[in-house]
Amino acid sequence: MPDEEIAEEGVLTPLDTPVQDPLLREILAENQAAATPQEQSQPTPTKQEEVDCVVIGLGAGGAPLLARLAQAGLKVVALEAGPWHDPTKDFATDEKAQNFLFWNDERLAAGGNPLAMGRNNSGTGVGGSTLHYTAYTPRPLPDDLTLKRDFGQGEDWPLTYDELAPYYEEVEQFLGVSGPTPYPWGPARPKGYVLPPLPLNSAAQLMVRGAEKLGIRTSPAANAALSAPYFQEGVGWRQACTNRGFCQAGCSNGAKSSMDVTYIPVAVKFGADIRPNSFVTEIERNAQGLVSAVVYTQNGQQHRQACRHLFLCGGAVETPRLLLLNNLGLTSGQVGRNLMAHTGIQVWGTFEEEVRPTKGIPGGLISQDTHRPQDADFVGGYLLQSIGVMPVTFASQAARGRKLWGQAMRDYMRQFNHVAGINILGDCLPHADNFMELSDELDARQLPKPRLHFTAQDNEVRMTAHAEKKMRAIWEAAGATDIWAFDRYAHVIGTARMGRSGDDAVVDRDGRAFDVPNLYISDNSTFPSALSVNPALTIMALSLRTADKFLARERRRDS
Amino acid sequence: MTFQELLPTSHLSEATRAELTQRLAATSQAAAYEPQFFAPETYQLFVAVAARLFPQPERPVPIPLIAAVDKRLAEGQSDGWRYDALPPDREAYRLGLGGIEQIAQALFQKNFEQLEPAQKDAVIESLASGNPPGEIWQSLKATRFFEEMLAELTENYYAHPWAQDEIGYVGYADLPSWVNIGLNQKDAREQ
């Protein structure tokens, strides 16, 4: 048998030889593409003993509720697709070395403004995207939740700011958010931030200088990184930030409040069973249509974990992908729809002074004066932020944005230490043309690659133009030359929206699926609108709220 | 301080030092690298294109940019996304490099590698302009291909310690902390 060899044990081992004939290869590839994964029946692994809850995904959506459920005494298992890292050993201060933190399974970016994924917005590992978030944690302002009421466009949240405020406070206090007290925008708060703001780096100082000349108020920003050592209940002492500036990758001393150094240690302390490298492929249901088990692959082995409740926390791409692959929770027709991405245009300039943009917390400064600009020709608004940057990321953006190459690129990058940036984080309206679907191209796991359609609509285009003008003016006032803009879109939001009715929403205000009573979703996919602030803080607040509502329901059922 | 001066110091964590030491070691090995994915002649063409995208006349051994791409494609690694308008990376690179030859032939009736530096740059300009001559570019979107290729090579270039010396970046030497982080402020090891 030329295609097989007999190993010593007498077991037939097929050789994995590549097909040489191009035509045959094409035919084989076509056949493979035609077979959907659901059709490839595999033997079912033995079911593991039923637990109260399975949580899929350990980022900002999964980790807080995992801790809450474990603290309540429930038997919980967490399945995380990526590994569990050791920050001191794994988090080198090198951009390329940190690529493993990003969700690198390929996704297809379609539409007029294709969304960059991976490094831009998608993480993997115990801690999820919080391992590489910049920890910028402003609260939304109350009217972020009422766009439709105020403008007749977009969507209202089925929750009010007052309902979320206690959860924002709890998350901020627990994580040790460093920020200004009192906070200059939004309603007065019962408690201030637990730590003073982190020191302003060069980019923040330049933004203060430019904004002052234009009469724009600024403030040191709220960041979930410690400006002083901090004792955290259930975790212990955490060290202060060393101004390493490498927050878009893993924090090596635990000063950044990613989930792996905050909620996850609490979950572990209370008995949560965390299974890293566990990629979920199937969600099983019983005769009543309730979720009964999940099938996942860990280190090449297939497992089947029975559960009474499932919490899906995979983010705005993997969560709808799992729902679509398993034909789960789809009756509203909204799964995959309403894909939104924050407007995130950056403006860069060159300064005479030495900036050295890699030091200090990247988003040191904030202004929310542009939350509802008086001269706006668009719905909603945005925040302004000073930004630090690492060299490989910056050079890559200069390549994509300015198409610099050859001597021109080398010359531009030689003055890297004189470059500083500002950007916006702005709202985005849902639109029928923007959605996520399963393509017919398979990834390395033999699952259909997600395809994300995104085209900036009138509102995003107008907001971006307004912001670019404003930021160019700030940078000119601050003394910048060679100013250029890099148009980009950040966090992916939507695709499994929450709402008041199963007719037009996937989950209710508690995160519970309308179609499947023991399925909850907790991540950025449930946001009905994008908000004009970074999403992580709200994801965590909603996560705790979902856990509380679930626990209250369970207690009522027991009594 | 330069990379060579900083590398052995306690300003680098063990993890950072290990990574950068390995990257430096790969530099001298690159000349002998045997492509795993590209055909040898395609690999040489790509190296010639890279030599114009990042000309390094001052260096006896240039920062290698293509071996890492070849390795990535051979292993089927991705950065998490691609433009839907482009075919999968392997196909895009094969087609795109073939397309660069077609531009060279259309403009100068020669292979890319036989061209004078200024002519090579004209070929790349033509590609970057988004509407180059050649049949391949009827189906492969030139602007997106150029952007993807340029971004990948740029990342490979500026991840290298020599390039980081060139731009005065010492952020990898981050221990124990950065104290002077404001405008015109430097810690001693940044001098």
Structure in words:
Chain A: InterPro entries: FAD/NAD-bd_sf, GMC_OxRdtase_N, GMC_OxRtase_C. Chain A: Pfam families: GMC_oxred_C, GMC_oxred_N. Chain A: GO terms for molecular function: flavin adenine dinucleotide binding; oxidoreductase activity, acting on CH-OH group of donors. Chain A: This is GMC family oxidoreductase. The complex is a heterodimer of chains A (559) and B (191). Chain A is an alpha+beta fold and 559 residues long. Chain A has twelve helices and 22 strands. Chain A has one domain (50-558): FAD/NAD(P)-binding domain (3-Layer(bba) Sandwich), CATH 3.50.50. Chain A has helices at residues 22-34, 63-71, 87-90, 147-151, 161-175, 202-214, 263-269, 315-325, 391-402, 406-414, 458-477, 536-558, and strands at 4-6, 12-14, 47-56, 76-79, 107-110, 219-220, 230-232, 236-238, 273-275, 278-285, 291-298, 301-312, 340-343, 346-350, 365-367, 382-387, 419-426, 435-442, 448-453, 481-486, 489-493, 519-521. Chain A is globular, with a radius of gyration of 24 Å. Chain B is 54% helix and 2% strand. Chain B is built from nine helices and one strand. In chain B, helix 5 packs across helix 6 (117-129). The interface between A and B is large, with 68 and 57 residues.
